[in-house]
C-alpha cells in the first residue's frame, strides 16, 4: 500500500502567481515567491521532492522546454499539508542571447511547480520589450 501525496489545484492561484512573477520582471525587479500546497492523504509519513521549472519561448536562442530553477525535499506526516515556497530571482528569466550576453529578452514564460518535469499546474506570463 502506497501513501498518496496530493498536489493542490492551483487554477485559483494562477492570477496571484502571475502578479507575483510579473513584479519580479520589472526594471530593478526583486525576487518573488511562487508556492504550492502539497498534502499527504495517506496513513504513513512520506517525502516529496517539489520542483520549480521555467520555460522561455520566443527568445533569440533556443531554450529548454523546462529548465529546473529550484527544488525542495519536504517530509509530510499523515494528513499534513505544507505550503512549499520558492524565491524566484529575476535572473531566473534571463538567458545567454545570440550576442553571448546574459540578458532579458521578450518572451512567453511558463512556470510550473510539480513533483517531476512532466506535469504540474502552470502559470503563464509575458516579458515585454
Characterise the protein shown here:
The chain has one domain (5-127): Immunoglobulins (Immunoglobulin-like, Sandwich). Helix content is 9%, strand content 47%. It has one helix spanning 14-24; strands at 5-7, 32-40, 46-57, 67-76, 81-88, 95-96, 102-103, 107-114, 121-127. A hairpin with a 6-residue loop joins strand 8 (107-114) and strand 9 (121-127).
CATH topology: Immunoglobulin-like
Task: Enumerate the strands of the largest sheet in spatial order, edge to edge or round the barrel.
Answer: 4-3-8-9
Q: For this structure, what is the CATH class?
A: Mainly Beta
The residue ranges in which pLDDT falls below 50 over 5 or more consecutive positions are 1-5
Number of helices: 1
**Main beta-sheet annotation:** 4 strands, antiparallel
Let me know the average pLDDT: 80
Helix content: under 10%
Shape: elongated
- The total of beta strands comes to 9
Series of H and E elements:
EHEEEEEEEE
Radius of gyration: 16 Å
- Name the CATH homologous superfamily: Immunoglobulins
Number of self-contained structural domains: 1
Task: Summarize this structure briefly.
This protein is mainly beta and 129 residues long. It has one helix at 14-24, and strands at 5-7, 32-40, 46-57, 67-76, 81-88, 95-96, 102-103, 107-114, 121-127. Helix content is 9%, strand content 47%.
